[in-house]
Design goal:
3 domains, 7-stranded mixed beta sheet, two-stranded antiparallel ribbon, 7% strand
Length: 631
């Protein structure tokens, strides 16, 4: 078989890539790496990466992939049933995501361990999105289709535009807080199913708890369903403690289903999977778009949820694939993974599946069981389809309380107390972001919580970044040294201010205010700004410098700038500020870090026609003081 696969890959290479130049320029359109080696075809860097894995593919690799696929399929089916309860969609709709989306994502992914399909986070977000458009007179499948197409388009666009690194701007604190909220919502949301409450649970946590307590106090629960659910939960906990390596969820689901079939529990009021959406097996079929304009009308209503789901899906994908790749010493392309999940969502939507993402649990199972190529993910999708077709009757008899017990355990495992402790205690900013995201997720819509968390993180980061450090230095013989606040002024006419930190638009006004306060309060004739460690100048910074220069000129004072780095120098020249301030007043950085400031001191001495002994200024603006002594 291995020789046949190699021969097929060689023919494909000759047919498809014949006549293409050595640089393979056209591959850049698809994010492919330029391959210059003539002796080895590094097809894992091309599109699709799977083609490269076919070279040398043999029985040993097939066995490893097939075993991993079996284990992934075993985990996928019970999870899909649980997610259908969360979203309120038929199980078939959720399974379609794992089958169709899983194959499409594996074809494009560069990771042999990426398993695309329904996940906890996406399920909660999709459930919330469907609630917002509950009054729209369209089948749920068409609503999910529109949402899935939007999410897939956003993710595919992010991948093609190589925005994989953009996910680093989402704080881990946001993710940990959001995951905790998802765990609480899933766990509390399944209490009603665990006890057999008739009405569906609300989407906000306080309302969930009120709903559950009223159902228990008012004895609106189903006693036999409660027995089945609590017994299933207890047995899962015991199995996990006694046999931690066994799939306790699958074992208990099989046992509970056997009991349900043997004693005909459905006739006694216990809800089964078939009551949620009967599974009939078969190949997923295409879903048509809404015939009228109702589908277009959904776009603005689902826009916020689509962006939030796409954003979290991108973050999950990049973090999961990079984590698994680092453990195995593999290499993955973040932007390609974004394209993979985008295409997976597009394909799932077209075939009637719900949106999905990269599953950490199933991807970890794939990696731990020794998968070597993306074929493992594709085979697992096929096994899921075959298993559903063969065991559809059995799956339909699974008790819903047992599935609820399984989901409660899944929610429990999502909570990581150590990570929560770290992000709550690390810094004040992390604490604010953590509680802000958590409260928004529990009391508002989940998509709103995503934007609240990201917005808080960026706002607090900008607040930190917009606080440049201004410390005045003295030239003591042969070296510069910072002066304390009580230090005596060596020469009242010259001040050297060491500027360190970000000087982008957010910091420019504060920087200008502090230096202006210094100039206005003291009998200073010359201010030397040491800007070697000032970073990220922009147009706002340049305008602040020019305004400071004009203000000092109006007072008969001089502004000198020393230690200008090449990047900052280019900005000053391009904007014309270099010429307006004066080339004789700007001193570029040199190999000796103090030499440019010494030259500025000489120029200051010429301007005031005196000795250039310097007292170091420590900023004392009372309202916005940010000066500190460097360590």
């Amino acid at each position: 078989m291995g020789s046949v696969v190699v021969r097929l890959s060689q023919l494909l290479r000759q047919r498809v890539f014949s006549g293409v130049s050595a640089e393979w320029d056209f591959l850049r359109m698809f994010g492919g790496k330029v391959v210059r080696s003539s002796s080895a075809w590094e097809a894992e860097d091309l599109l699709p990466p799977l083609l490269g894995k076919l070279r040398g593919y043999g029985w040993s690799t097939l066995r490893a992939d097939f075993f991993a696929a079996i284990m992934v399929a075993i985990v996928t089916i019970p999870q899909a049933i649980g997610f259908s309860l969360i979203v309120g969609l038929p199980v078939t709709t959720v399974l379609t995501t794992a089958v169709v989306g899983g194959v499409m994502a594996a074809l494009v992914s560069s990771s042999p361990n990426l398993i695309f399909g329904p996940t906890n986070t996406v399920s909660i977000l999709v459930a919330g999105a469907l609630l917002t458009v509950g009054d729209v007179a369209l089948p749920a499948e068409q609503k999910v289709l529109v949402l899935g197409l939007m999410i897939g388009a956003i993710q595919l666009g992010a991948g093609l535009l190589r925005l994989g690194t953009a996910t680093q701007f989402i704080s881990r604190t946001v993710v940990i807080s959001y995951t905790l909220a998802v765990a609480l919502l899933i766990g509390c949301g399944q209490l009603g199913n665990l006890f057999g409450l008739a009405a569906p649970a609300p989407s906000q946590l306080p309302l969930m708890l009120v709903y559950f307590c009223e159902g228990i106090v008012g004895q609106a629960f189903h006693p036999l369903s409660a027995v089945v659910g609590l017994s299933s939960l207890l047995l899962m906990l015991v199995l996990k403690r006694v046999r931690p390596n066994w799939p306790e969820g699958l074992i208990v689901i099989v046992l509970a289903t056997a009991v349900a079939m043997l004693f005909e529990l459905s006739k006694h009021g216990v809800k089964l999977v078939l009551h949620v959406g009967e599974i009939s097996g078969g190949v997923p079929s295409l879903v048509e778009l809404p015939e009228d304009q109702s589908g277009v009308a959904l776009l603005p209503q689902l826009g916020s949820a689509a962006v939030a789901t796409a954003l979290l899906g991108l973050l999950e994908t990049v973090s999961i694939t990079k984590t698994l790749a680092a453990r195995a010493g593999q290499r993955v392309a973040a932007s390609r993974e974004l394209s993979a999940v985008g295409l997976g969502n597009l394909a799932s939507a077209v075939f009637g599946g719900m949106p999905g993402s990269t599953s950490f649990v199933r991807s970890a199972v794939c990696a731990q069981t020794g998968a070597r190529t993306q074929i493992a993910a594709m085979v697992s999708s096929g096994l899921v389809l075959a298993a559903v077709a063969i065991t559809a009757g059995f799956i339909n008899e699974i008790p819903i309380p047992t599935v609820a017990a399984y989901l409660i355990l899944v929610a429990k495992r999502l909570i990581q107390p150590e990570l929560v402790r770290i992000v709550r205690q690390a810094t004040g900013s992390d604490t604010t972001v953590f509680w802000g995201t958590l409260m928004a997720a529990l009391f508002l819509n989940l998509d709103t919580a995503v934007f609240v968390g990201v917005g808080l993180s960026l706002a607090l980061f900008l607040r930190k970044a917009s606080a440049p450090s201004l410390v005045e230095y003295d030239f003591a013989g042969t070296h510069f040294a910072p002066l304390t606040k009580d230090g005596a002024r060596s020469h009242p006419a010259i001040s050297i201010v060491h500027v360190e930190g970000e000087l982008f638009f957010g910091a420019a006004d504060l920087f200008q205010d502090q230096v202006t306060a210094l100039v206005a309060k003291d009998d200073i004739r010359v201010v030397i700004l040491r800007m070697k460690n000032a970073r990220h100048l922009d147009a706002t910074t340049v305008l602040a410098l020019l305004q400071l220069h004009a203000y000092m000129r109006s007072r008969g004072q001089h502004l000198l700038i020393s230690g200008i780095a090449p990047d900052a120098g280019r900005i000053l020249r391009a904007s014309g500020a270099w010429e307006r301030i004066g080339a004789d007043k700007i001193f570029p950085a040199e190999a000796n870090p103090t030499l440019s400031t010494k030259r500025a001191l000489q120029r200051a001495s010429e301007l005031i026609k005196g000795e250039a002994d310097v007292r170091i200024f420590v900023n004392d603006v009372p309202e916005r003081s940010l000066a500190r002594q460097p360590t």
